[in-house]
C-alpha cells in the first residue's frame, strides 16, 4: 500500500469521503492520488493514466499543480475546469489535507439551477434577487464581479441604500422611485433595458449598467414579493461609442473618398456647392440642385416622403434615412438608400450634415429573393414556436393545477421542482423544497419512529435501477413534525440516450382514506355481527312462529273433515278462510327465512351454462305455459359463475312473473337472451305483459311489495326482492325497464365464466 493509500485509510473522515456522492481526490505529498467511488466513476481509475492530472484536460494541469502546491502551504483555492466527459466546467475546491497533501472536491453542475447559474456567469450576466423591501437576497458570481462587492457586502442592501451612487444616463441623480426595481414592484410589470451608471467608491470607477427588472409572484399574491434583476456591464460599449463620436470628424474625409455618392448640407438643410458626386450622378448643375432643386432629381412619387423625412431630421438634428428613386444622368431611375448624420459642435449645435446615397438595386433584388425563399421557413418556425409555447404553458398549468403532490428529483435525490400541492401537503414553501435532500427532509423515518435508511427507500431504488414503483402505504413527515400517511408512484426520467437522469414522484395524502377504511372495517364488523344476530333471530322466529301455525292448521283440518256439511255454509267458508290464512302465513315465513339466509354461506361458485338453466326453467314453468298458452324462447349461449340452485330460482321467478302478469286475452310471449361484455354476461328477460309504471320500477324490488291484490294475482310480493338479492350475491345487478301496457324487460348482469359455448337458440310453447 502506498503512503497516500495509508494516509487515506488512516484519515478520520476516510469512510465518509468514500461514501460521498460527489467526486473527491486525495493527493499525497509524493504525488500519488486516491479517488473515491464517485471520482473513479467520473474520471476512471488512477491506474489508467500516467499521472493523476492526466485524468483532467491537458490545459488544466498547470492550474491543478499550482493549486495543490498552494494547499501544501496551507492555502485553499477554487478552479473551474473542463472535464473530458462533461459539457459544463466543474467547480474544483482544493484544500490542505495534512502532511503536505491536498484534497480535491469536484462540484458538477448537473442540477438545472446550477447549469443556469453557470451559463449566466459564463455570459457575464449578473443576476440579483431582491425582496419586497428591495433587500438583496442573493446574487450570482457575475453580479458580484460587475458591482465589485462580495456577497456578504451585498446581502441586505436595498435599492435606496445611500451607499449606492447611481446616476441616470444623462448624469442626473437617479431617484429611488424611478429605479427599475422599485418600478417593477410598484407596477408589477417588467422594466427592460434601463441604462444608468453606478459609482463604486471602493474601486473609484463608474460603470455603465443595462438593467432588466422582472417581478416575481408567490401563488395567490396580488403584488410581487420578489424582483429578479439582470445586470449587463456596458461600460466598454459606452466608452467605444464616445470614442466613435469623438472621431467622427476624422472619418469625414474617408467617407467622401468612398465609391458612394457623398454630399454635404448646411445646418439648415440647404445643399452646399459644390457637390461633385451628386452633379456627376444626376447631371444637375449647381444652379439646378441649389436650395431645394435637388428634389427635381427624385422620382415624383417619392418626393413628398423624401422632403418630409429630410425636414423632420433637420428639425430634430437626428439621423436621416430614407429609400427613394433618383434619376440618373441617362434618365433612368435608380433605387437608392439615403443616409445623413449631423456633425455637431461641442455645445450640441449642428455644424453641418454629411450624407451618402447607395445604390440598393442588387440589395433589393437579393432581399426579395431571400424573403421569398424564407417565407415558408418563417411560417414553420412561427408555428413550431406557438406549439412549443402552448405545450410549455399547458405543462405549467397542469403541474400547478394537479391535486396530487408532485416533485422531481435529481440522481442525488435533491428536489429539482415541486408543485404547489406538494408544498401544501408537506408544509414547506416551494423554495425550501427545491435543492433539498428530500429523503432527509420528509422520508427519514417510518411511522413507527424507526429510522428509514436511504438504501431501503423505494424512491432511491428507482433512482438506481430505473424501475417504476407504486407504494400504497408509506409515511412522509410534515414540516411541523407530524406523520403524513401517503401513497405514491415514483417514475424514472431518462435522457435521449436512455440514461436515468432522475425521477418524478406523485403522492397523495391518504389520511382521510385511512380513516374511512378504519370506519368501514368497523362498520363491516358491526354488520357481520348484526347479520349473525338476524340469522339466529330468523331461525328462532321461524321455528316459534311455525309451531303454533301447524297446530292451528291441524285443528282447522280436523274441524273441516269432521264438521264439513254439518254446519251452515258460513261456517264452512270460515274454516276455508282459516286454512288458507295458515297456508299463506307458512309460505310467508318460509320466504322470509329464505330471504334472510340468502348469501350467507361459503359454498364456492361454479361454471353454470345458461342453456342448461333455461332447460330447467322451462320444466319449472311448464304448467303456466300450458294454462296460458304462452311461449318461452331463449338464446343464451354464455356461461356464468355462480350457485346453480340460486340462479335457477332467480330465472324461474323472472319467467314465472312474465307469464303471470300477461294481458287479458293475449297469450304471453317471453324471450330470454344473453350477451357477453368482457367479464360480465348481460341477460335480458322480455315479455309482452301488462308492464310497470316508472314510479314503481324500484318499489317492486322491496320485500312484501305488491302492486295488485291477491284476488287478481297470487303471490307474497317477495320474489323480486329475493331475485335482486341473488343477483347482488353473485356480484351482479337486476333492474327493470318498462312502461304501463307495453310489456317489461328485466336486465340481469352476472360474472362471466372463462369460456362460453356456441349460440344455440331455443323455443318452446
From TrEMBL:
Keywords: Kinase, Phosphoprotein, Transferase. Its EC number is 2.7.13.3. Residues 737-765 are annotated as: Disordered. Residues 737-747 have a biased composition (Polar residues). It is an enzyme of class 2 (transferase). Gene3D superfamilies: 1.10.287.130, Histidine kinase-like ATPase, C-terminal domain, PAS domain. Pfam families: HATPase_c, HisKA, PAS, PAS_3, PAS_4. Residues 112-193, 247-303, 398-443 form the PAS domain. Residues 540-754 form the Histidine kinase domain. Residues 754-765 have a biased composition (Pro residues). NCBIfam families: sensory_box. This is histidine kinase.
Amino acid at each position: 500500500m502506498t503512503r497516500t493509500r495509508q494516509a487515506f485509510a488512516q484519515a478520520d473522515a476516510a469512510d465518509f469521503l468514500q461514501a460521498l456522492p460527489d467526486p473527491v481526490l486525495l493527493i499525497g505529498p509524493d504525488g500519488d492520488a486516491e479517488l473515491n467511488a464517485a471520482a473513479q466513476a467520473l474520471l476512471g481509475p488512477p491506474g489508467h493514466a500516467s499521472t493523476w492530472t492526466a485524468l483532467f484536460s491537458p490545459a488544466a494541469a498547470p492550474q491543478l499543480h499550482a493549486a495543490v502546491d498552494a494547499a501544501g502551504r496551507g492555502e485553499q483555492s477554487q478552479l473551474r475546469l473542463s472535464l473530458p466527459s462533461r459539457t459544463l466546467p466543474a467547480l474544483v475546491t482544493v484544500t490542505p489535507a495534512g502532511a503536505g497533501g491536498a484534497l480535491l472536491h469536484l462540484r458538477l453542475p448537473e442540477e438545472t439551477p446550477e447549469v443556469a447559474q453557470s451559463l449566466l456567469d459564463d455570459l457575464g450576466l449578473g443576476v440579483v434577487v431582491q425582496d419586497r423591501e428591495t433587500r438583496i437576497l442573493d446574487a450570482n458570481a457575475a453580479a458580484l464581479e460587475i458591482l465589485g462587492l462580495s456577497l456578504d457586502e451585498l446581502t441586505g442592501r436595498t435599492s435606496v441604500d445611500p451607499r449606492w451612487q447611481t446616476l441616470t444616463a444623462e448624469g442626473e441623480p437617479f431617484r429611488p422611485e424611478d429605479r427599475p426595481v422599485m418600478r417593477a414592484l410598484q407596477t408589477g410589470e417588467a422594466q427592460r433595458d434601463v441604462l444608468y451608471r453606478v459609482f463604486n467608491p471602493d474601486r473609484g470607477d463608474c460603470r455603465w449598467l443595462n438593467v432588466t427588472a422582472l417581478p416575481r409572484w408567490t401563488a395567490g399574491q396580488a403584488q410581487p414579493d420578489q424582483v429578479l434583476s439582470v445586470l449587463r456591464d456596458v461600460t466598454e460599449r459606452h466608452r467605444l461609442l464616445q470614442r466613435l463620436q469623438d472621431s467622427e470628424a476624422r472619418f469625414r474625409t474617408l467617407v467622401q473618398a468612398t465609391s458612394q455618392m457623398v454630399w454635404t448640407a448646411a445646418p439648415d438643410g440647404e445643399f452646399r456647392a459644390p457637390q461633385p458626386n451628386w452633379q456627376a450622378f444626376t447631371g444637375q448643375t449647381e444652379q439646378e440642385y441649389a436650395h431645394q432643386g435637388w428634389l427635381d432629381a427624385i422620382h415624383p412619387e417619392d418626393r413628398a416622403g423624401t422632403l418630409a423625412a429630410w425636414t423632420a431630421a433637420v428639425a430634430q438634428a437626428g439621423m436621416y434615412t430614407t429609400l427613394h428613386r433618383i434619376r440618373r444622368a441617362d434618365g433612368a431611375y435608380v433605387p437608392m438608400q439615403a443616409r445623413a448624420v449631423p456633425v455637431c459642435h461641442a455645445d450640441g449645435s449642428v455644424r453641418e450634415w454629411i450624407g451618402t446615397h447607395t445604390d440598393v438595386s442588387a440589395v433589393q433584388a437579393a432581399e426579395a429573393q431571400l424573403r421569398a425563399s424564407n417565407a415558408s421557413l418563417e411560417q414553420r418556425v412561427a408555428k413550431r414556436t406557438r406549439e412549443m409555447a402552448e405545450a410549455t404553458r399547458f405543462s405549467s398549468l397542469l403541474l400547478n393545477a394537479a391535486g396530487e403532490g408532485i416533485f422531481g428529483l435529481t440522481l442525488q435525490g435533491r428536489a429539482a421542482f415541486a408543485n404547489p400541492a406538494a408544498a401544501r401537503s408537506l408544509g414547506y414553501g416551494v423554495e425550501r423544497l427545491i435543492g433539498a435532500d428530500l429523503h432527509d427532509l420528509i422520508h427519514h423515518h417510518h411511522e413507527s419512529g424507526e429510522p428509514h435508511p436511504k438504501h431501503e427507500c423505494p424512491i432511491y431504488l428507482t433512482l438506481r435501477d430505473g424501475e417504476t414503483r407504486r407504494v400504497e402505504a408509506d409515511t412522509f413527515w410534515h414540516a411541523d413534525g407530524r406523520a403524513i400517511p401517503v401513497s405514491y408512484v415514483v417514475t424514472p426520467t431518462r435522457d435521449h440516450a436512455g440514461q436515468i437522469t432522475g425521477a418524478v414522484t406523485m403522492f397523495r395524502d391518504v389520511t382521510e382514506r385511512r380513516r374511512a377504511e378504519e370506519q368501514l372495517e368497523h362498520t363491516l364488523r358491526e354488520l357481520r355481527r348484526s347479520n349473525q344476530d338476524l340469522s339466529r333471530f330468523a331461525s328462532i322466529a321461524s321455528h316459534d312462529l311455525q309451531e303454533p301455525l301447524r297446530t292451528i292448521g291441524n285443528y282447522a283440518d280436523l274441524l273441516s273433515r269432521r264438521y264439513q256439511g254439518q254446519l251452515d255454509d258460513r261456517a264452512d267458508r270460515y274454516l276455508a278462510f282459516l286454512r288458507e290464512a295458515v297456508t299463506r302465513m307458512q309460505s310467508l315465513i318460509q320466504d322470509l327465512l329464505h330471504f334472510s339466509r340468502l348469501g350467507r354461506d361459503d359454498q364456492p361458485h361454479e361454471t353454470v351454462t345458461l342453456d342448461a338453466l333455461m332447460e330447467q326453467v322451462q320444466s319449472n314453468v311448464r304448467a303456466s305455459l300450458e294454462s296460458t298458452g304462452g311461449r318461452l324462447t331463449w338464446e343464451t349461449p354464455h356461461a356464468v359463475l355462480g350457485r346453480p340452485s340460486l340462479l335457477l330460482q332467480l330465472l324461474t321467478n323472472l319467467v314465472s312473473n312474465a307469464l303471470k302478469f300477461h294481458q287479458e286475452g293475449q297469450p304471453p310471449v317471453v324471450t330470454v337472451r344473453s350477451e357477453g361484455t368482457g367479464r360480465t354476461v348481460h341477460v335480458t328477460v322480455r315479455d309482452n305483459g301488462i308492464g310497470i309504471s316508472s314510479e314503481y320500477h324500484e318499489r317492486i324490488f322491496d320485500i312484501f311489495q305488491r302492486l295488485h291484490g291477491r284476488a287478481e294475482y297470487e303471490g307474497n310480493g317477495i320474489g323480486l326482492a329475493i331475485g335482486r338479492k341473488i343477483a347482488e350475491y353473485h356480484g351482479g345487478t337486476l333492474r327493470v325497464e318498462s312502461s304501463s301496457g307495453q310489456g317489461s324487460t328485466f336486465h340481469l348482469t352476472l360474472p362471466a365464466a372463462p369460456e362460453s359455448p356456441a349460440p344455440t337458440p331455443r323455443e318452446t310453447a
